[in-house]
Amino acid sequence: MRADIIDGKAFAASLRRRIAAAVPGFVAKAGRAPGLAVVLVGEDPASAVYVRSKGKATREAGMESIEHRLPATARQEELLDLIESLNRDEHVDGILVQLPLPPHMDEAAVIAAISPAKDVDGFHVVNAGRLAVGQPGFVPCTPLGCIMLLKDRLGDLSGLEAVVIGRSNIVGKPMAQLLLAENCTVTIAHSRTRDLAGVVRRADIVVAAVGRPEMVKGDWLKPGATVIDVGINRVAGEAGKSRLVGDVDFAEAEAVAGAITPVPGGVGPMTIAVLLRNTLVAAHRRSGFAAPA
Ligand code: NDP
């Protein structure tokens, strides 16, 4: 038996089409397009690529992309002042500060400065708290994308055993909260977990968000499990080239799992699509309109 491939790229493309189709309705009511402000501090090449692709996707969805760049030497006060002006700007519905920030800046303080109503990344403690207590807020894009893929594949997740490997604030913890809200029995594993393979073997759903290339092996999986691989790891490939792999050994897992996301083309494309979705929702909420489903 070969696992079905969960095509995150196709799902993300259809989500982006649905968002683009909903934008003109907002524009007709609000008299303006939803706006997403992205702030990049410094010259990190990977961050610059992410910011460019977020801007392009925002414009393709018919929304306004507002990009701000500060030098790596900028003082934290300058960044906080910029965030404050974006908080006040009526045309800005979502604010995203591209991480990581230069080492002299306090990431937690910067995230705390973003208005929770515009925190489309869902990183603000108010939004993390809302997720934990089941109130509507903003959920981090990557785990929300994972839950969309899982529900599309499995339908009702109620009662399923889910194991999330990784407990970061941006992926592992919100992922566990989302699975709990779907009535899964959730285990969060991390670097101190004993007998990780044994823990993973119980799972109907495995979400790997570790950052270790191909760590999860085929014989760790329960046959038929649904595997969501969040990891993005660059490793040496053939002829001196590099290639991307996930946290799951895909070739091994494919022979055991019921369904699996590939890397690339699985979770990755969902992140930007969900960012656009969160921005559209923020725009509706701020204007007092019912948010689209
Ligand atoms: P972090 O480094 O913040 O967290 C990694 C987690 O993995 C930690 O909780 C850590 O445990 C745990 N861990 C580390 N080693 C082991 C181990 N040997 N066994 C079990 N658990 C372990 O990473 P992120 O959550 O930010 O990202 C995880 C991966 O997802 C990365 O590859 C990243 O590139 C990718 N990613 C992909 C995105 C996408 O769009 N597809 C978006 C965001 C991230 P502990 O807490 O004990 O240290």
UniProtKB/TrEMBL annotation:
Pathway: One-carbon metabolism; tetrahydrofolate interconversion
Every Tetrahydrofolate dehydrogenase/cyclohydrolase catalytic domain range: 6-121
Gene it is expressed from: folD
Oligomer status and interactors: Homodimer.
Positions annotated to bind NADP(+): G166, R167, S168, I232
Pfam families per the UniProt record, alphabetical: THF_DHG_CYH, THF_DHG_CYH_C
Species in which this protein is naturally found: Sphingomonas oleivorans
The enzyme's E.C. designation: 1.5.1.5, 3.5.4.9
Protein name: Bifunctional protein FolD
Family membership: Belongs to the tetrahydrofolate dehydrogenase/cyclohydrolase family.
UniProt keyword Hydrolase present: yes
Residue ranges of every copy of the Tetrahydrofolate dehydrogenase/cyclohydrolase NAD(P)-binding domain listed in the record: 140-286
UniProt-recorded Gene Ontology molecular function terms: methenyltetrahydrofolate cyclohydrolase activity; methylenetetrahydrofolate dehydrogenase (NADP+) activity
Key words, A-Z: Amino-acid biosynthesis, Histidine biosynthesis, Hydrolase, Methionine biosynthesis, Multifunctional enzyme, NADP, One-carbon metabolism, Oxidoreductase, Purine biosynthesis
Role of this protein: Catalyzes the oxidation of 5,10-methylenetetrahydrofolate to 5,10-methenyltetrahydrofolate and then the hydrolysis of 5,10-methenyltetrahydrofolate to 10-formyltetrahydrofolate.
BP GO annotations: L-histidine biosynthetic process; methionine biosynthetic process; purine nucleotide biosynthetic process; tetrahydrofolate interconversion
Superkingdom to which the source organism belongs: Bacteria
Catalytic activity: (6R)-5,10-methenyltetrahydrofolate + H2O = (6R)-10-formyltetrahydrofolate + H(+); (6R)-5,10-methylene-5,6,7,8-tetrahydrofolate + NADP(+) = (6R)-5,10-methenyltetrahydrofolate + NADPH
One GO cellular component term: cytosol
